[in-house]
Amino acid sequence: MTASQTELQRIVAALQNSGLTVEPVEDGALIQHGGTRVALFAERDHQGGVIVRLHLDLDLYVEEDSLPDILMGMNLLNQGLDYGALNLDPVENDDEDEDDEAPTTFAVLGRSVLWLPELSAAELDRLREHLTRFEVEITEAVERTLHGSKGMSA
């Protein structure tokens, strides 16, 4: 068992003990929070401590030709976020029959990184608080934008 697995297992156990629904997966964990699932990955920092990465798939996709408007809107949204940021990731096209000239599609994701100097109870509580605030902040920012009058259009 690698050190990262041990740290991940300690984080998973602490989050489960705090009442969250956590499902270990290959190299991380999925945390059910309300109607969303946040992916959590942990790795030992070579300078000490643990780096925790959080990913929130928003099930939002944009086409390449919409990027200028979307990037401007995401930049404005990111300026108001404290616990994470919105990013775009290209979606792999699994259909080999597709035209190579087809526009690329991007998934909109919420991401956050938190460094824990140690896995003490206080730091694990800080992680839980960060995780909760990250999920709420990203979800609310996107919902406000999509349902507001000046929404992002994709």
From TrEMBL:
This is YbjN domain-containing protein. It comes from Deinococcus metalli. It comes from the Bacteria.
